[in-house]
Amino acid sequence: MYVLRSGVVRLGAVLLLAVAVMAAAYGFAATNTVPDTRAGDGAGNINGYIVSNVTYTLNASNPQQLDRVEFDLNAAAGTVKVRLQTTGSWYNCTNTAGNHWSCNTPGQGVQPANELRVVAVE
Question: Are residues 25 and 67 in the same domain?
Answer without folding.
Answer: no
